[in-house]
Amino acid sequence: MPSAKSNNPVKIIVATIIILASVSWLAFTGVRDNKSYYVTISELNAMGNKAYTRHLRVAGNVAPGSIHRVGTTASFQLLEQGKTLQVSYQGSEPPPDTFKDDAQALAVGTYGRDGVFHATQLQAKCASKYAPAAKTATTTAETTVPATAKP
Q1: Per-domain residue ranges for the chain?
Q2: What is the DSSP string of 105-141?
Q3: Going by DSSP bridges, is the β-strand pair 73-80/68-70 parallel, antiparallel, or unpaired?
């Protein structure tokens, strides 16, 4: 007489396939939704209607005098090879300390039909901070160390 608790291998295989399919689907849709394309300002302008439907990353230099901060938001212009892009940043944190005029910046967000890039993330690097230090005149005089006497 068969026991009431016998495991049916078909049920285990079907359950495993369902679990694997569910995990695969969630991984695929999660990657698709979080994917962002890196484009230049020129490429952004040439994308047409695709620019409005994709999550994008755009880099450039911050135009001098264009930064307007209010709390955790900022608006500014990015410059890249003679092209400009108006950016509106609205994030959960204020812009980084290195976000200044002429700094290299990377904005992550979406491009609006109003011609403004709406960023939710902002990274900045101050080029002058990483430049080599200015060389100073050094003296060529050598310091002599007295020899110690041996006993």
Answers
A1: 36-129
A2: EEEEEEE-TTSEEEEEEEEEE-GGGGSPPPP-----P
A3: antiparallel
The sign of the CA dihedral 96, 38, 56, 24 is negative
Dist CA 28 CA 17 (whole Å)? 16
| Domain spanning 36-129, CATH class | mainly beta
CA-based nearest residue to 62, from 95, 99, 91, 31: 99
Q: Tell me which residue has tokens 């007295």.
A: 146
Region of poorest pLDDT, from 6-10, 21-25, 32-36, 86-90: 32-36
pLDDT tens sequence across 16-61: 999 998 888 777 766 555 556 778 888 888 888 887 878 888 888 8
